Amino acid sequence: MNEVTYxxxxxxxxxxxxxxxxxxxxxxxxxxxxxxxxxxxxxxxREALFREVREESGLxxxxxxxxxxxxxxxxxxxxxxxxxxxxxxxxxxxxRWTHIVTDxxxxxxxxxxxxxxxxxxxQAFALELDEYVGLLPTASRTDEVSTLSD
Length: 150
Description:
The chain is mainly β and 150 residues long. The protein has a single domain, classed as Nucleoside Triphosphate Pyrophosphohydrolase, CATH 3.90.79.10. The chain is 9% helix and 37% strand. It contains one helix and seven strands, in the order βββαββββ. It has one helix spanning 45-57; strands spanning 5-15, 21-25, 36-38, 63-76, 79-89, 96-100, 111-117. Strand 4 (63-76) and strand 5 form a beta hairpin.
């Protein structure tokens, strides 16, 4: 009988205004990603969220943080990920930036390139991380955001 391992993850949908979603590209996965990571022993999903966002993006202040949903996602046989998705807002003036990951894990020292996208274009993310973008509150899914460029 094969034993299944469950790994707890915190995933962050961070928005600026009503129609901008923070995404990044970095080594290890094809496609866009959102800040996310594994819970440390004794850490709650909410605590992991704040730590992971700081380590992966450099952002330190999040507002209006709320839990959206939790799912169980399988990537490999014998390993399941319990993913806790959160939404938070941020007041960030930069449209694009890079950040060197500061965690002690496997991504330590990697450079992530951040930018904002419209939630309506949030598709084909790495690791199916776009699955719950539709749960985000937005002023209007069809509003244009003039500061974004693709």
